[in-house]
Hints:
The chain is of the alpha/beta class. It contains nine helices and twelve strands. The protein is globular, with a radius of gyration of 19 Å. The termini are far apart.
Amino acid sequence: MRILELELQDLRDFRGRHRLSFLDDAGDSARPVTAVVSADPRRRATALEAIEASVSYAVDPRHPRGLVREAFLSGWLQLSLELCAADLQPMADPLPPVDRQDAGVLRIELGRRGMVPLLPMQEWNTLLAHLAPAGETEGRFTNAGALSSQLYTSVARMHRGATLHGGLLYFSSLAPAPEPTSHSWLADVTQPWIVRAPSAQLSRTEPLPSALARYGRPGAVIAFEPPLNQSRPTELAGLRDAARAWNAQLILALHPADLPAWLGARDILDLDAALNAVNTLECAETAA
């Protein structure tokens, strides 16, 4: 599994529309490591939370996360998720090498935005959507295409004992906020496809790479934000090495002062610069 792009509109600090790309310069594949950077911890947290909330909705739509419920009321988000054959066809035996050319891209689109695909017969197969027309409370558009159904079935098989592949390891700087519903089948399994845990808890109990080894599996996405005021470059390097060993995609949410020296400039998404540019443009348009 790979995160390709995330778009947000009118959610928390993301006023207006913003696109975060995790693709390499050629636009062909996801970067192995991406740092989502902001001096504001709320912005960093929202970006990671949007990824986790979208992926969680795809495999457990009955219990939408808090950010998804906010999008239903007043915002919009879209996540492009690359899924390979091993993500969609889990087996009890060890998996063969993954051919990423067999991947499909699932688009998860949630919120208040009255749009359907321009070419429905082509796009609905890869679209998971729950949308409401702007300014209305009725007439929601919902869709769960074939690729979404494959993922849902595949994750259910993994939770029944098939080999874990892909999924999301989500480690936020703070403990996830309590959900209104106390029971979700994602939380009741021994080896969940989605892991949610505060990064501070991992750092306190054992070295980070060792702790993550308990959750690791091939092809996962690791979304990690260090505990506030506790970022340590050696831990980030260990996390990078663990992700490389698992063929996992690593997404780091960091303060600008905590950027490790080994991270390349092309691997940085500067949220502050992007949001400030949009705000400046909106002010100019208002003045005109």
